[in-house]
Amino acid sequence: MALKDYLDIHPDVAQALAEGRPVVALESTIISHGLPWPQNLEVARDLEAVIREEGAVPATVGIVKGRIVVGLSDDQIVEFAQNSNVVKVSRRDLATVVALKQDGATTVASTMICAAMAGIRLFATGGIGGVHRGAEVSMDISADLVELSRTQVAVVCSGAKSILDLPKTLEFLETNGVPVLGYQTADFPAFHSRESGLRVDQKVDDADAVALILKTREDLQMGAGEVIANPIPEADEIAKPVIDGWIATALQEAEEQNVRGKDATPFLLSRLAELSEGVSVAANLALVKNNARIAARIAKAYCAG
Ligand code: PSU
Ligand code: MN
Q1: How far is CA 81 from CA 7, 33, 56, 60, in A?
Q2: Which of 92, 125, 148 to mutate to test the pocket of ligand 1 (most atoms within 8 A of CB)?
Q3: Stretch 261-274: mean pLDDT, rounded?
Q4: What class does CATH assign to 121-305?
Q5: What are the residues facing 204 on neighbouring strands?
Q6: Alpha-helical segments (H) within the chain
Q7: Are 176 and 145 in contact (CB under 8 A)?
Q8: Cα(117) to centroid(ligand 1), Å
Q9: d(Cα 112, Cα 275) in Å, to the nearest integer?
Q10: Among 68, 108, 219, 224, which one is least packed by beta carbons within 10 Å?
Q11: What's the CATH fold of domain 1-120?
Q12: Is 203 a catalytic residue?
């Protein structure tokens, strides 16, 4: 079968792509494994609304009974939000889940793959996976980072959560040729906080500048993705000592309970939500919406350029 035979692109998304109009991809693991019910459904819907408000078309990606769906329907989004048993699908799982006609929630890595298949250049999410703390022993490095080095999709995010080793995450991206562009910031954002104390490769001032860099990377056949790091809005930031306390507890519990592999990130995220009594979730909602807005603006500038 040809690649297109595996893909179900929503008619609105297909039409926008055919007409050269802006489209922004969204992931489904954030819905099924990244946020608790019912905030996950609220976020999934809000993200689509924000993207539409900015004049772009949203395309939430997921695997439904083995079909790669680019642009889930609202009913399908509700399914992903309610069913936390859906398989978390990264690159290594994608073909297996498709072949066995299963349902799957796509991570940053697999959403990038599906977006590229459909011809979508921009993708918005909360935080990317990264190099885990203690990776020098566990070797736990998210497939998201490897995907960024091989698939040409720009990911607008608020950096990565400090459950991860942020200096090592940036080193990995540098080694693998993935630019980290700070959207109106010179400091790499640490998800809940605007700053990590680490520098991005380049501060960019507006959507036009990002779009120009994306086009130039295509012309120069760089063949990789980009991280567009957009800090959480000031009003929604969580003070660093506060979030660091919850993170330390969550990490210690993961260690004690020997949580490994693909379960590590969902475990840490859900413990963080519980320990903070929803404070981390509220910050997450604010930053991801802001990322959707900026991604839509970049997509518009990209299509106009
Ligand atoms: N970080 C977050 N929220 C998330 C994720 C990461 O702040 O929802 C999800 C994304 O789908 C990301 C995945 O691609 O976790 C990374 O998982 P892993 O570390 O197993 O690669
Ligand atoms: Mn991992």
Answers
A1: 22, 9, 23, 12
A2: 125
A3: 96
A4: alpha beta
A5: 183
A6: 11-18, 29, 39-53, 74-82, 91-99, 108-118, 135-138, 143-148, 166-175, 207-219, 240-256, 264-275, 279-304
A7: yes
A8: 21
A9: 31
A10: 219
A11: Indigoidine synthase fold (3.40.1790)
A12: no
Cα 143 to ligand 1 centre (Å): 10
Residues with CB under 6 A from ligand 1: 27, 29-30, 34, 90, 107-108, 126-127, 129, 142-144, 161, 262, 265, 269
- For residue range 141-157, list pLDDT tens digits in order: 999 999 999 999 999 99
Domains 1-120 and 121-305 in one fold: yes
| 305 has a pLDDT exceeding 90 | no
Q: Tell me whether residue 79 is one of the annotated catalytic residues.
A: no
Whether 277 has a pLDDT exceeding 90, the answer reads: yes
Q: Can you state the angle between helices 74-82 and 39-53, rounded to 10 degrees?
A: 150
Quote the ligand 1 centre to 265 CA distance (angstroms): 6
Q: Which atom of ligand 1 is nearest to the CA of 143?
A: 21
| pLDDT mean across residues, the chain | 97
User: 64 - beta bridge partners?
Assistant: 67
**Mean pLDDT calculated for residue range 7-21:** 98
Place of tokens 């099924």: 32
Q: Classify residue 23 by its DSSP letter.
A: E
Are 90 and 64 a contacting pair, CB within 8 Å? Answer: no
Q: Where are the domains of the chain?
A: 1-120, 121-305
**Whole-angstrom distance, CA of residue 30 vs CA of residue 107:** 8
Q: Whose CA is nearest to atom 11 of ligand 1?
A: 107
